[in-house]
Amino acid sequence: MNKILLTAILTLISLNFYSQSNKEELLKQDIAGIVEELKFMYHYDQATREYLYYQTFDKNITDSIENLSKEIRDNRMNYTPVKSDSLKDKIWNSYINPMDKLHTERMIAITKKYGFPSAQRLKKFSKDSVDFNPVILLIHSPSEFSKELIEIVEYEKDKGRIEKCDFGYLLWHLNGRSDFQPMLENGYEIVKKEDGTIHLKAVDCN
Question: Which residue, 59, 57, 54, 41, is CA-closest to 136?
Answer without folding.
Answer: 41
